[in-house]
Amino acid sequence: MFGENVGIGKEPVSAREKRVWLKSVQEKLKGQTYQACYRNTAEQTILEKIQRDYTEMKHNERTTGYEKPHLLYDYPTEPCGDIIVKEDSRTAAEKQADMNADDVQKKLGTYVAPRHQLVTFQIVGIKYAQPYIDYTKGLDEYVKSLLTAQNTSMTLDIPLQMYNTLPEHLKAQDIRREHSVRPSRSMDANEDFAARVLEFASSEKARAFLDNETCPSSSTQCGKKFLAAPYGSNYLIIDEIGKLFTRIAAIAFPVALGLAAVIIWFTVSRIMAENRKETAVYRAMGAKRRDIAHIYVVYIMLIALRVVLVSAIVGIVIALAVDYSYGRTLTDTAATAFGIIDRAPAVRLFNVDSSLLLVVVAAIVAISLVASMQPLVRNTMRNPIRDIRDE
Q1: Which end of the chain, N or C, is more open, meaning fewer C-beta atoms within 10 Å of its C-beta?
Q2: 228 φ, ψ to 5°?
Q3: 277 vs 386: CA distance, rounded Å
Q4: Ordered DSSP codes for 21-65
Q5: Domain coordinates in residue numbering, the chain
Q6: Nearest to 240 by CA among 219, 216, 211, 217
Q7: Residue-wise pLDDT tens digits, 76-105
Q8: Taking the model in full, what pTM does it have?
């Protein structure tokens, strides 16, 4: 509708270019106006009758004895104009019967008079509607499938706060009343059975409500009180992935520390075995076991410090490289998936201020000391005279 008028180019493929494109689209479209002819359900029924009557007469134009409808309408001759009565061959009795039917509906409060109105819309924002996402095509599509729900909406969104600021002569209450809430097939139009969007303080509460109080919308043999499904972003799936990684880390981290302890134990034991002669000489010269222990503790701490520095530098460099390479892509993908053009929060895969770094450093130092205790105690308790003679 606006592409050629305001110069909207073709949608790019990459997430970074798409985010820039969406921002330009929003800037170009914001404030643009357009008009649409609104016809209520009564007039839409008449328009359907025009097409249905035309098709029926065309199909039976050579049928002997065919009698065309007594009341024929014709399309408006101008945009958003009145529907024209093309031919009215009803008898007086038929007209009276139709009038009586309208009177009954009026008494019941169900009568809807045909009505049309030329409505002017002003664009205040854009909704990046995305249909089916094929997550097998690449990282962008997979992230979209995690972050967003499938959006097949083809309707307009009118911000209620902005609509309420309009003067009364510009409001179209029947449009809101008829189309603001459309019950589904399994939903009663009564307010008590209307659809609701519930918000929970945590993913645990949301999951507990879905598990304990609701049935899937496709279930036919569930006796629980509500039908429900996650709405909006797939936060529960993301939360499950986070918990899975936490469980994996809870197993992998102790295993890694155990392997490190074994390696450090073998390394320290070998070093102390190679330096038994020097240790025995120190002992023979009057050095106490405590002094020898201090020397090796300092040596072990220097090794641990070197491991910390090397692993921290290598790990941080790799993490920053991954964050720089993929973090920006994920940010752009998430921003375009949610339609957030400005002030979108950045997706960070690594944070230097993370308390996990302190935990890792403390774990390396602690495991180095713990793994060195047994060979250190064994070495300091040896007889220096026998070590000098044997070595």
Answers
A1: N
A2: -150, 160
A3: 10
A4: HHHHHHHHHTT-EEEEEEE-HHHHHHHHHHHHHHHHHHHTTT-TT
A5: 3-179, 196-227, 240-390
A6: 211
A7: 999 899 999 999 999 999 999 999 999 999
A8: 0.50
